[in-house]
């Protein structure tokens, strides 16, 4: 838990007041058995009704103060633990938001969700338990032990035999339980990942009639979690029977030995009653401590998983950027002998020796087979990944010299996978520019050919989007994502196969908008259809991460065999469709 003090500091008063109130409650619990023994030994034995009333009222007052202390202690303990973990969850989420694509690749989405929810919840529960019991249980143990020794040191010796035995048993349980809790949380990760995947892709599952397959996959993951949870908790279950056995055996021993002392006239009946209560309190405090240790064992497994995220080195930062204040003003893009692989030490190169220049305002088309490295190439421009070798320059400055914010503010990107968020269409479009006016929203929506279908909705731009934008078609989603990027008014616009679901007539209108509305913006277009890039100022043909052809459409038809093959196959297909 090193480094977590900053989360406790703002709520230090709650961390102090809660346990202190619990100590007051403990003092009351220790006083009550002694007061009860006084009633039995003096009030009842001497039939002094006034004495019984006085001590009885004192006991009521003590019980009332105990109740107030218990309520206050529980409140401040809850406040401290909830606020602590709320701030921890905030920073954990902020850390995930800083992750580069490469960092995100190291964790599954389901695992990150579990760490942000279940693991944080485990920490909150054990912290609340510690604040309520960390002082209460030891306080009761020490206080009851002292009172027991004061009343009869011979009887108290029985406890000295029981405590070491219980300590060894609890330690063995903790050592066995800790690794099992870690495995259990990992199985929960896997289940969450499966649930998320199934829910996000439920339409695909139904269209392929794969419900039975998904149910079986869920059953396997669910039973795996169930079995590992039982395996972990099976150890914990042993704690209560062991503690109860120790408590009952100790109580029997105390009653038997104490009864003999009473018969011999060496102990009063009230003292034995109080002593038995103290013995129960000692064993109960040990039981509470064992609960704290067991829950802490589970929480430490969660803390370890949280630390894995918090201590992850962000692989892509602008910490060493030399021109953090510089902004993208022209939109010139240059690749100089760029090579790239996912993971610097392993794997084949995705891109090798890529060199080209896109002048401000130019349209650059990129075409090639699936897996040729097209998406990887454009993701290097806004530094979603860093190059392995070479350099990517924007406005003649290495992208690593910019701050990430200023660089990405100058680049508009429509990713291959179009994503819309829960909220209205207008709220989604404002991701491009929060301060955009309604006129600007409509203007850029028209440029992206989205305004007409948005106006067809009863609520227009106030239409609510379902999660992922599933209540619009693929082509409509693409046009909304393009409009969102246009609202940013970037100096560099990247379209990663972003018109694949749009008909050719609509795509032609979007390209016309690029020539007019965005004439000063550098456009980099990845496409599968040659028709999408044939008017580009330069077309790059990629194959297995290398540029095998570059030039205008007519030049490539004459000089690049791979481009010719793509062109001929697409033309033949179009002719077959028209026939």
Secondary structure layout:
Blueprint: H1 5-8, H2 12-44, H3 49-98, H4 101-105, H5 109-133, H6 136-151, H7 153-200, H8 202-207, H9 211-237, H10 239-263, H11 269-310, E1 333-340, E2 351-358, E3 363-368, H12 374-379, E4 389-394, E5 397-398, H13 404-409, E6 411-414, E7 423-424, H14 425-429, H15 438-447, H16 451-456, E8 464-465, H17 474-487, E9 492-496, H18 504-516, E10 522-526, E11 538-543, E12 546-551, H19 553-559, H20 561-578
Parallel strand pairs: 3-10, 3-11, 6-9, 9-10
Antiparallel strand pairs: 1-2, 1-4, 4-5, 7-8, 11-12
Helix pairs in contact: 2-3, 2-6, 2-11, 3-5, 5-7, 5-11, 6-7, 6-11, 7-9, 7-10, 7-11, 10-11, 15-17, 19-20
Notes on the structure:
The chain is an alpha/beta fold. Helix content is 63%, strand content 10%. The chain is built from 20 helices and twelve strands. It has helices spanning 5-8, 12-44, 49-98, 101-105, 109-133, 136-151, 153-200, 202-207, 211-237, 239-263, 269-310, 374-379, 404-409, 425-429, 438-447, 451-456, 474-487, 504-516, 553-559, 561-578, and strands spanning 333-340, 351-358, 363-368, 389-394, 397-398, 411-414, 423-424, 464-465, 492-496, 522-526, 538-543, 546-551. A six-stranded mixed β-sheet has the order 6-9-10-3-11-12. Strand 9 (492-496), helix 18 and strand 10 form a beta-alpha-beta unit. Helix 2 runs antiparallel to helix 3 and helix 19 crosses helix 20. The longest helix has 50 residues, at 49-98. 34% of the residues are buried. The mean pLDDT is 83.
């Amino acid at each position: 838990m090193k480094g977590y003090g900053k989360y406790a500091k703002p709520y230090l008063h709650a961390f102090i007041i809660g346990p202190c109130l619990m100590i007051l409650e403990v003092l009351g619990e220790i006083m009550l058995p002694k007061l009860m023994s006084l009633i039995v030994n003096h009030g009842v034995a001497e039939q002094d009704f006034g004495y019984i009333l006085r001590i009885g009222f004192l006991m009521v007052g003590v019980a009332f103060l105990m109740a107030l202390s218990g309520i206050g202690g529980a409140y401040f303990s809850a406040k401290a633990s909830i606020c602590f973990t709320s701030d921890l969850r905030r920073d954990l989420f902020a850390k995930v938001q800083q992750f580069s694509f490469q960092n995100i690749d190291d964790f599954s989405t389901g695992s990150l969700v579990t760490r942000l929810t279940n693991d944080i919840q485990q920490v909150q529960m054990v912290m609340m338990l510690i604040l309520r019991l960390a002082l209460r249980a030891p306080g009761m143990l020490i206080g009851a032990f002292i009172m027991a020794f004061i009343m009869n040191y011979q009887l108290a010796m029985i406890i000295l035999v029981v405590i070491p035995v219980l300590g060894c048993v609890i330690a063995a349980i903790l050592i066995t339980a800790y690794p099992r809790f870690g495995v259990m949380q990992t199985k929960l990760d896997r289940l969450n990942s499966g649930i998320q995947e199934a829910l996000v892709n439920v339409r695909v599952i139904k269209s392929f009639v794969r419900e039975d397959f998904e149910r079986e996959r869920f059953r396997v993951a669910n039973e795996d979690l169930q079995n590992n949870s039982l395996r972990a908790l099976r150890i914990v279950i042993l704690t209560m029977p062991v503690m109860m056995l120790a408590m009952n055996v100790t109580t029997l021993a105390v009653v038997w030995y104490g009864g003999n002392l009473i018969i011999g006239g060496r102990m009063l009946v009230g003292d034995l009653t109080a002593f038995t209560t103290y013995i129960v309190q000692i064993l109960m405090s040990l039981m509470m401590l064992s609960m704290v240790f067991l829950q802490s064992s589970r929480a430490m497994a969660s803390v370890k998983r949280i630390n894995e995220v918090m201590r992850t080195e962000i692989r892509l930062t602008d910490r060493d950027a030399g021109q953090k204040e510089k902004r993208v003003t022209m939109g010139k893009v240059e690749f100089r002998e760029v090579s790239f692989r996912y993971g610097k030490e392993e794997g084949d190169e995705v891109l090798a020796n890529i060199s080209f220049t896109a002048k401000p305002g130019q349209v650059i088309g990129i075409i090639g087979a699936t897996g040729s490295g097209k998406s990887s190439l454009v993701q290097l421009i806004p530094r979603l990944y860093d190059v392995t070798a070479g350099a990517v320059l924007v406005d003649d400055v290495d992208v690593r010299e910019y701050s990430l914010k200023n660089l990405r503010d100058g680049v508009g990107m429509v990713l291959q996978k179009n994503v819309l968020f829960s909220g209205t269409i207008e709220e989604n479009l404002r991701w491009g520019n929060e301060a955009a006016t309604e006129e600007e929203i409509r203007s850029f929506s028209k440029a992206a050919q989205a305004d007409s279908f948005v106006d067809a909705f009863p609520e227009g731009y106030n239409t609510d989007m379902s999660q992922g934008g599933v209540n619009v078609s693929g082509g409509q989603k693409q046009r909304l994502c393009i409009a969102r990027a246009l609202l940013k008014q970037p100096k560099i616009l990247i379209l990663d196969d972003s018109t694949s679901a749009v008909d050719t007539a609509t795509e032609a209108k979007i390209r016309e908008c690029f020539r007019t509305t965005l004439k000063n913006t550098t456009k980099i277009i990845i496409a599968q259809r040659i028709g999408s890039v044939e008017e580009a100022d330069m077309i790059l043909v990629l194959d297995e991460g290398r540029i095998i052809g570059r030039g205008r459409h007519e030049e490539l038809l004459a000089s690049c065999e791979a481009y010719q093959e793509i062109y001929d196959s697409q033309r033949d297909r179009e002719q077959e469709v028209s026939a």
